[in-house]
Amino acid sequence: MFKKGRRDWTPKKLVFRVQRYEPTGNEKPHLEEFTVPFTKGMTVLDGLIYIKEEIDNTLAFRTSCRMGICGSCGMLINNFPHLACHTPVEELRKDMLEIKALPNFAIVKDLISDLTPLFEKHKSVQPYILRSDSQEVEEPSGEFSQSPQELEDYEQFAYCIKCGICMAGCPTVATDRLFLGPQPLAQAYRYLADSRDEGGKERLLAVDTAHGVWLCHLAGACSEACPKGVDPALAIQLLRRKVILKTIRLRKEKQPSPLVKPPTEQKPKLPVPEFTAKHSSKRG
Amino acid sequence: MRESHYWLLFQIAAVILFVFLGMHLVMMHLDDILHFFGVDMGDATSWSSVMQRAGSSSWLAIYIIFLALALYHGFYGLRVILIELPLPHFAIRTINWAIPLIGVAVFAYGIYIPINAYL
């Protein structure tokens, strides 16, 4: 990550300029400075935890897993949306860090953004497998078969952790709050591309609106910001293709994945060696 | 109609407009190119030439299609810009009604002129 000869960046202290906001007070969001000792390998989240534990325990921020999986600690770090736990301060190479709540969302307190609009929009695209045989989904008697190639069609988009960073980076979400945004649109594509899914019609109705898939300006800020490499901008383009092909009925409807027996009831793919079978039958 | 129909029509209109605008540019402003290929259409802006086109049914059809596509493309683009603005819900609904109405009114006025000239 670092260029040769630049490894010696070891400041003794870092200044964290952290956004503070108390919703019950009259003050507008403002920045407050904290001095944090630098330790090798520390992340922005480590610095915030230090502030909360050693300097000011009223500082509010969201965190949980500390390893880029839960998506809780999304915030604006030096004017770029990042996961605080996924951002080593050495990578930023600045003695002064400016940390704010994610833009394009209302602020609950300090660094905590209200992600409710994200979850509402996400819910609107029905981000789950929809099947006509709902009985099988509720009480499964087997598994829906899927080849590794079919998995690859959507796998990249399934890495989304719903951190809201793509929505915070999106310039279209910034101007149009009704725009579905990169996360819900990418997730709509993730399920549309899933060979087990049959919810194409319902999901396309949700995204094929004036504030849906067509409003994306293809700025690509979502893909640049995504900490998991999901590439929502690509998903939106693929989703557009799917919607258009559906509209002009150019593509034949695919049959959803068939039901197969669970692995325990299937014949083993590799034959069990004879001596093992004999040995186990003798024991039995 | 769903948004994808409007969007698809917007794209198709763009492609056809590209052809029509190319025709317009070559005939009206770049007649040297036609001369280079040995085509001489005369002075397209002269009175007799304009009146000759005005009396032609195929030119009338081209004018009407050109106007319809240009208006659709322009007004759809305007609508997309306007509904993206942070406006209240009723304003967006008004835009969604007003834009097609204005478009139809302008189209009616626009085709009145070539039809009148044709007749």
Overview of this structure, please?
The complex is a heterodimer of chains A (284) and B (119). With 284 residues, chain A is α+β, with helices and mostly antiparallel strands. Chain A folds into two domains: 13-113, Ubiquitin-like (UB roll) (Roll); 116-260, Fumarate Reductase Iron-sulfur Protein, Chain B, domain 2 (Orthogonal Bundle), CATH 1.10.1060.10. Chain A contains twelve helices and nine strands. Chain A has helices spanning 44-55, 89-92, 116-124, 134-138, 148-155, 165-169, 171-175, 182-192, 200-207, 221-225, 232-247, 274-283, and strands at residues 13-20, 30-37, 74-77, 80-83, 96-100, 107-109, 112-113, 143-144, 259-260. In chain A, β6 and β7 form a beta hairpin. In chain A, α8 packs across α11 (232-247). Chain A is globular. Chain A starts with 12 loop residues before the first strand and ends with a helix. By secondary structure, chain B is mostly helical. Chain B has one domain (3-118): Fumarate reductase/succinate dehydrogenase, transmembrane subunit (3 helical TM bundles of succinate and fumarate reductases), CATH 1.20.1300. In chain B, 82% of the residues lie in helices and 0% in strands. Chain B is built from five helices and no strands. Chain B has helices at residues 3-28, 31-36, 47-54, 57-83, 89-118. In chain B, α1 crosses α4 and α4 (57-83) runs antiparallel to α5. In chain B, 5% of the residues are buried. The model of chain B has no long low-confidence stretch (mean pLDDT 90). At the A-B interface, α11 of A face α1 of B.
Number of domains of chain B: 1
Rounded Rg of chain A? 24 Å
What is the number of E strands of chain B?
0
Helices and strands of chain B: which structural class? mainly alpha
Number of helices of chain B: 5
Distance between the termini of chain A: 58 Å
What's the SSE pattern of chain B? HHHHH
Give the neighbour order of strands across the main sheet of chain A.
2-1-5-3-4
Distance between the first and last residues' Cα of chain B:
35 Å
Quickly give the structural class of chain A. alpha+beta
> Residue share in helices of chain A?
25-40%
Point out poorly predicted stretches of chain B: none
In CATH, what is the class of the largest domain in chain A? Mainly Alpha
Stretches of chain A where pLDDT is under 50 for at least 5 consecutive residues are none
